[in-house]
Design brief:
- By secondary structure, the chain is of the alpha/beta class.
- The chain has 2 domains: 2-154 and 195-224, Rossmann fold (3-Layer(aba) Sandwich), CATH 3.40.50.720; 159-193 and 226-263, no CATH class.
- The chain contains 10 helices and 14 strands.
- A 7-stranded parallel β-sheet has the order 3-2-1-4-5-6-11.
- α1 links the parallel β1 and β2 (26-31).
């Protein structure tokens, strides 16, 4: 199959490219930077996939599948959705498990989304990530075409992407190694999360590609193991102690008033 990937140079995209190449697919990947591949069946297309003129030109060529890792605002997706669905056999849209509301039971595809159950009008008036993703899902759900698959991965990690609550690796690790504190939400420390290895998410996406039963469906991809962000904090702390020894850092928590924790 000819498979097009928008923004496929991250924790999920890179292992997916390798997997699809090994399976014998012809893979085309958009990137803002000039890139090349030693694999003859992997082709990089330099350009900005946020620009309609760029993607309109790309989609003049036939593709069986489009895997879309791009982060959009709702008007952006509205502008391009019909073009995409009309141009490819299957559109795989990357959403997020963050669309779900807090749940006391394990999250499934039937778990209520935050957008659907939240009563906070001030919050609902925002473009917060979880709300925006759910609104983009609604746009896809409402389409007359059903050649789409929505994928909701949990927090995804690899050796270069290790999230800590709202902080990405370059934010929390740099400050920790310099002995600088961060502000961490106290209520977040006790929240359960699931972190899934990027290569495993790629395998899940690869499994969905070309499957008729995946069309018109929203699918979670998640590790079966859950931990609190406080537990993940301690995993990072122990890893730093083992790896960096004498380098000054602070990853110890001290309670702050009400909703913040400093470390």
């Amino acid at each position: 199959m000819r498979i097009l990937i928008f923004g496929g140079t991250g924790a999920m995209g890179m292992p997916l490219i390798k997997l699809l190449s090994e399976q014998g697919h012809e893979v085309y990947v958009t990137s803002r930077k000039e890139r090349s591949s030693e694999q003859t069946d992997v082709h990089y297309i330099c350009g900005n996939a946020h620009e309609m003129a760029f993607i309109s030109g790309i989609l003049k060529e036939p593709y069986d599948v489009l895997v879309d890792f791009m982060s959009y605002r709702l008007p952006e997706l509205q502008e391009r959705l019909d073009l995409i669905l009309d141009s490819v056999g299957q559109y795989i849209f990357l959403s997020s498990c963050r669309v779900y509301a807090e749940s006391k039971t394990p999250i499934t595809e039937e778990t209520p989304r935050l957008l659907d159950v939240c009563k906070d009008k001030e919050y609902l008036s925002t473009e917060e990530y979880a709300l925006d993703k759910a609104r983009e899902e609604n746009l896809i759900f409402a389409s007359e075409r059903k050649n789409w698959t929505i994928v909701r991965p949990t927090v995804t990690y690899n050796s270069r992407r290790l999230q800590l609550g709202c902080y990405e690796l370059d934010e929390w690790l740099g400050r920790a190694l310099q002995g600088k504190p961060l502000v961490f939400y106290d209520d977040l420390a006790d929240k359960l999360t699931s972190m899934t290895y990027g290569g495993d998410v790629a395998k899940g996406i690869g499994y969905l590609i070309g499957r008729p039963q995946a069309l018109g469906e929203a699918v979670n991809i998640a590790s079966p193991e859950s931990k609190t962000w406080g537990e993940i904090l301690n995993i990072y702390k122990n890893a730093l102690e083992e790896s960096w020894g004498g380098i000054a850092y602070r990853l110890s928590c001290s309670l702050m008033p009400r909703t913040t924790r400093s470390f």
